[in-house]
Amino acid sequence: MNDRLQTLADSLEHRFGNALSNCVVARGEVTITLDAAHLLETCTALRDEDGFKFEMLVDLAGVDYQAYGVTEWNADEATAEGFSRGVQESTSGRFRFADAPVVGTHTGLRFAVVYHLLSITRNQRLRVKIFCEDDDLPLLDSVVGIWSSANWYEREAFDLFGIIFKGHPDLRRILTDYGFIGHPFRKDFPLVGHVEMRYDPEQGRVIYQPVTIEPRVLVPKTIRHDHRYIDDTVESEASDA
User: Fold this and answer.
1) Is the pTM of this model over 0.85?
2) Which of 19, 59, 145, 210 sits at a 20 to 30 Å CA gap from 88?
3) CA distance 181 to 7
4) Range 3-65+110-176: architecture per CATH
């Protein structure tokens, strides 16, 4: 384990103590899970205090743990003809994680926000994860006042996951259309969506209508001509002839 990473982890646990619910050093990275109530004061300290100096918010992303550990890929019984995705009816383009068997590995709160921080001064990185306390109304304080780069990131998390950031100066959709309904990165949102839009020449405007595309997920098939796919029996018969 990198000594610098462990030193950072020890410093975080010593400084923030009760505000942290978890601190992990894994795969060359330090990740802390922070209680939502301590978000603003902890992030301010991470930015300003000499031992940390995380001046830059590199990225912010929402996470939906509703179907964590559930997959529509059945790779355990893969063959040379490909996986089952797109063949089984339950794994078509209209696959909904809400309808899948509950075999996930996550329990607890559904939505989280992950912050990736960079300290230019100390040349170190940190991942901060915070869970929203209400699954029906995921809400966290905005960190735009701490890192201005969070502005568009928080709008993206709001648009795609429906996470609300209290105190954001202009919280509105940023990627989907103005009249879009729902949040497309939530695990219970169908892959093909609910509606589609097209230009109607008769009405002379863009209209919305129920989605009409065929729900199908294609899986590319790669055939490699090596020992894994060579039939020894066929080769033996050919040589005997």
Assistant:
1) no
2) 210
3) 46
4) 2-Layer Sandwich (3.30)
